[in-house]
Structures are given as C-alpha cells and as structure tokens.
Amino acid sequence: MVLRALVVLVVALLAPVSAAFASDWLPHPADATWEYTWTDSVYNTTPTKEKVTVKSTNGASFTLAWTTDKEGNPAGAPTSIGTVDFQESNFGLINTNWASNQPPAGFPILCAALASCGNSLASTYYNLIWGTRAPTLFEPLLQGTSWTATGAAKNDVSSTNDYLGTEMVTVPAFPQPVLAAKVRSQITQAGALGDPYGSGTRTVWWVYGVGPVKIEFDHAGGSDAPVTISVLDSTNQTPQPPPPDVDYFPLRQGLHGRYVWTNPKHFKTPEVEKMSIDQVSNDSAQISFNSISGPIKVKGAYGFTKRLDGVTNLWGVTKAASLAIMPPLGPKASPVGKRRHFFTPFDLMTFGFNPVIPAYPAPGDAWDGGKNQNDFATYGVVGHATIVGMRKVKVPAGTFEALEVRTVLKQPGFPFGSGTRTSWFAPGRGLVKLVFHHGDGSVSTVVLSR
Fold it and tell me: What pLDDT is stored for residue 223 in this prediction?
C-alpha cells in the first residue's frame, strides 16, 4: 500500500454558538437590595452597615450603588458612599469601574504614593473586586476551575483564584444555612505604602440567585494581621439551586490519555494515539496528539476554550502521513487541499459545529449546526446535537458514568462526513468513547484505553 503524505493546517477562529450569560450569580433586577455589615479587626472594629441597590442597567452592563447613610451606624463608623460597575460576559462577571469617597484616614495607603490614590478596601464591594476585576467571578463555575486576574486602579494587584466547591453557609439574611459556591483567592500587592495590607487570602461565598453573602479577607502580615469580614444581613433576593458544577471536559494541564480508533472498512489495524494537555490558561488549553501505532503517523495540536457558550474548538493543526485511504471530506466550497481529514479522535469529536458540549449540560439540551457562519465555512455541515443523558460506559481505561451526546451530521456530497456520532464524556476525564456511524456504511469507534 502506498504511504500517502498529508500536511493539513486548520486554523478556525470559531464564534460562540449563543450568548448564555448566567447573571444569577449576581442578579440585578431594578428593585434588588442587599444590606451588609463589615468589620476590620484592626482598622474598623465598629460594625458598619451598608445598603446596596441597583443604580442602572444597560444590556449586559449594570451599576450597583452602596451607602452607609441612614443605616443606623454608631458614631465612629466610617462613612462610605460609592458605585461599582459590572459587565456580564461569556467568561463571567467583569468589574469595569468604581467610584467612592476617600477611605477613612486611618486605613493603610494602598498605592505607592499618597497623591491621587484610587484604591480602597473600606467597603464590602471593594473587598470583593480587589485583585479580581476581569473576571470577578469566572464562568462556567465547574469543579477544578481556576483563574488569574488583576485589579486596583493601575492593575498592579494580582490574584490566583480557585473554586473549592459548594458548602452550606450561615449568614443573618436567611433563617437557615444556604448552599454557596466557595472561591478562595491568593492576592498579591507590592510597592504600596500600606503593604502588606493589600495582600493575603480572601474567601468569598456566592449564593446563586443572591450574590456574595460572605467575604473574609485574611490580610498578610503575621499572626496579628488584620482580618476583614463582611456578611449579608438582609436582601429581597431568593437563593436558588446553583447550576451543576460537573466538569465533563477538563482542561487540566498534565492530563493525558491513550485512545484506540478502529474503522474496519477503511483500515485493518487499530490506530493508537496519545493525547496530552500541554498548556492551560483561564480555561483555555492546547491539547496535543501523537501517534503510537497504526496506519496513521500524526502529530497534532488543538486549541479549546471553555466559556458560558460551551466547550469550543478554536483551532487545529495536524501533520500526518497515512497508509489508510479513507473517503474524502468536504466542504465542496473549499479547495481540495484545504478540506477536512480525520487523523485523530478529536477530529472525529469536533467535526461539524461548536460547541462540543454546553457549559452546564443537562439531558434534553439541544443545539443546531449550520447556523454559525464560521463553523459552516470550516466544515460545510448542518446537523443537530442532543444531550441524551447519563450512561454507564465500559472501555479499557475503566467503567464510567458518562454524559451521552448524540449528533446527526449532514455534509452534502460527502457520505463519510455525514451520519450519526455518539460521544460519551466522563466527569474529570473528558472523552472516553465515541462511535461515528458514517453515511458510507463504515463505523469509527474510539475508546479510551488508559
């Protein structure tokens, strides 16, 4: 059999299928109100009440306002009046601006110079956005989610943030404990006159349908370092069950696996390839493939990102030499040299349209292919995908309770690019099995072997 040398470069910047902004981590109807009490163990030992309201909303952007006025605070409590601006995006909640009166005179100076210092930690929302402006809260919020961010007036405060899962938390606003998402941030500021007050460990408890209900900032500086605590006293918002946080497509650096791909009609021996996640930043990752044995000699890399519009394949680069002669793929509109090829299991998995799976998949969820212009220009495929539900799947790597996704694909004029694909994704592991019944009568089966 003749060895067919193929070099394929696919760079497809694919737009989101839909904008699915989940605002309920910080809801903001016009009549929403929250009241917080905050203290600092060194710089504000007098419990200080603040009322937060919705000042304005404009599309995906909104402004909250807070005040200590008329909150019944005792003499000596700091006066604080301000606003904080947010924007909802497909990667979470972004803080775009803030404004307030000056912090109390006795507070540490959080800038390198006293003049024109726009930094403060003298309010609940200032403690929330400190070091985490973009995003303040990352989404989708799934098991293992981590992200980096910056903050302060000159973006000179950095943070690494980890979602620790959910737990019950008790705050005065509710008669019973409520389920909250717990996010811990390691915050670093250097060069401020008030160092090390701007650095430390902050924990925020977020309740779906309400917003932040408790913030604890353990400032750096030793055993006697200040601790700032803010708790929610009251609100007219109602706690809701959070979306499921199961991660069916983990983008975790160092995760690797081995896949076996068979298609008896088109190649006699199994194709075995290794997958590894090489680079990760804020839930975007580069995933590489290398052949181990079989009829295809391939080296490839793929870019994926995980956002509120789902797990999206951004680009792919493969170089391959193949002994297997498989039917051609489209689309017809592309020159022959730029048409698709199946060289790796992820080529089979991503073929057609984005997303691979939604951000918070649930049985019955469905989406159509062919509507997104970039996807259609890349693949020329129309179709329909459905989340079937959870199924027990046994493969050589083990037995998994996996999410089943069924996709019907049609690539006009190319039977091999048409058919029904069923993919199974296991929590914390990703793709564990795939079966593609092609329109030419052949069947590609992919299993995770280890």
Answer: 86
